[in-house]
Amino acid sequence: MASFYTGAEGCPYPNPNASVQLRNGSGGGLVLLQDTQLIETLAHFNRERIPERVVHAKAAGAYGEFECTHDCTDITSASFLSKVGKKSDVLVRISTVGPERGSADTTRDVHGWGMKIYTDEGNQDFVCNNIPVFFVRDPIKFPSMNRSHKRHPQTNLSDSDMVFAITSFHLGNPEGIHALMHLFNDRGTPASLRNINAYSGHTYKFTKEDGSFKYIKLHIKAQTGVKNFTADVAAKTAGENPDFHTQDLFEAIEQGNFPTWDVFVQVMDPKEAETYRWNIFDMTKVWPHKDYPLRQIGRLTLNRNPQNYFTDIEQAAFSPSNMVPGIAPSADPMLQARMFAYPDAARYRLGVNYQQLPTNRSKAPVYSPFQRDGFMNFSANYGADPNYVGSSLKPTPVKAGGKVSSTITEHEKWVGEVSSFTSEVGPEDFEQATALWRVLGGQEGHQERFVGNVAGHLAKAKSAMIRSRVYEYFSQVDKDLGRRLREVTEAKVAAAA
Ligand code: NDP
């Protein structure tokens, strides 16, 4: 580093804190076009912001390590899981989903969990949430679902005026009931990012080199347990310190109080998938633990704060399409769509060469000469190597015994008809929501807080007809829930009148 200030191309600046001016006797000054220092300072400031993520904009993150803790070689050939004790570097970014970059951490929301494992066979990304299910199972509904949780196009308000949109979206797409049961229970307002769990939600495949595979779901569980705020404490904290979670995570790591999670999979044989009572590619459903118990594969520790938030966390790009050999996608339509949408979003937000940015760069060697040039390419760009595949001058390197990329799988044969997918909703879509309502029943005061959380939101909806439809909707989960919700909400409406 130079011991004095310079311009961006190294030329020394005598005084970076004063513009060059043509001055008259009375103290006025005209700035000069030749003052490159002033022009560059202003021009760069104007361009400091990159587009914020359309979802998952507000986040905290840190680096750490993933350690394989249990032998998994019977289910996957992934190198980072090949040996007990093997460690790989990791980056984790934990976010809210709907609100903007400057929003409060403790707003009620699903929390996203982007995780990049820098393995010796390339980057393995998992994009998880702190709830194990999602609101829709058809990816074409994703933008509408998110917009219904964001700002109103006329008022630009995100609170009470949007209640109608949120409510009307979910009434019109009732498959989201299970996810709503997660969002409105205490886990919708975590006390700390160190005390949340993360779930893949999607079904993935663990594959082996012999061509066999298993379906899996990933569970990442906080060693110190899940801890939540009540709605009141979350709201108060949002006012007092909107960056509460960010600060908590940073300070804990700074003090050496490293957060740790145990990492598990549920494992299903493909034969069982054909006859299992739930569609395993439906992201609104879990696999009940009693059917598919958790099996530990690893441990995750976050132990290093970012040196620079922008370069380490804001420029980070995660995608479920980043899969190492031994892990493969399943036929979950939401997963398939996200495998397109995430890199597409990164190309828009960061540019076509975003994988070259330090925080995204693979620690395993990269040889991808069919991806070159483009804006902001700051690699050696493969020098004189052929820019087409199949050259006799420099044949494509094939590592003897090398594993093929997992996204190219030959496990399944598909025969079917091309048709529009209508996501019909039946009683089975409410069963797991009911199971969760019962889980809440086993935790003191939790059902009551759940009812209060939904009622606090719903009481802002001005239409009695809409409120009534919501009571019926939740009655399908449990009649008593519907009744209690009506009682508490209408009391709030009456009190506010
Ligand atoms: P079990 O009856 O075996 O166990 C209940 C599970 O509920 C716990 O393992 C815990 O998951 C989770 N849980 C506890 N408190 C809450 C809460 N406040 N909000 C959300 N989840 C909570 O579970 P089943 O597998 O039979 O599923 C019953 C219901 O539990 C499901 O319908 C689902 O809504 C929920 N659940 C199930 C998960 C699964 O993958 N099977 C994962 C998470 C929730 P954890 O240990 O992960 O904290």
Could you characterize the architecture of this molecule?
- This protein is an alpha+beta fold and 497 residues long.
- The protein contains 13 helices and twelve strands.
- Strands 3, 4, 5, 6, 7, 8, 9, 10, 11 and 12 form a ten-stranded antiparallel beta sheet that branches.
- Helix 4 (177-183) runs parallel beside helix 10 (428-441), helix 11 (446-458) crosses helix 13 and helix 12 (464-475) packs antiparallel against helix 13.
- The longest helix is centred in the last third of the chain and has 18 residues, at 333-350.
- The N and C termini lie far apart (65 Å).
- The mean pLDDT is 93.
- Bound molecules: NADPH dihydro-nicotinamide-adenine-dinucleotide phosphate.
- Keywords: Heme, Hydrogen peroxide, Iron, Metal-binding, Oxidoreductase, Peroxidase.
- Belongs to the catalase family.
- InterPro entries: Catalase (IPR018028), Catalase_AS (IPR024708), Catalase_clade1/3 (IPR024711), Catalase_core (IPR011614), Catalase_immune_responsive (IPR010582), Catalase_sf (IPR020835).
- Pfam families: Catalase (PF00199), Catalase-rel (PF06628).
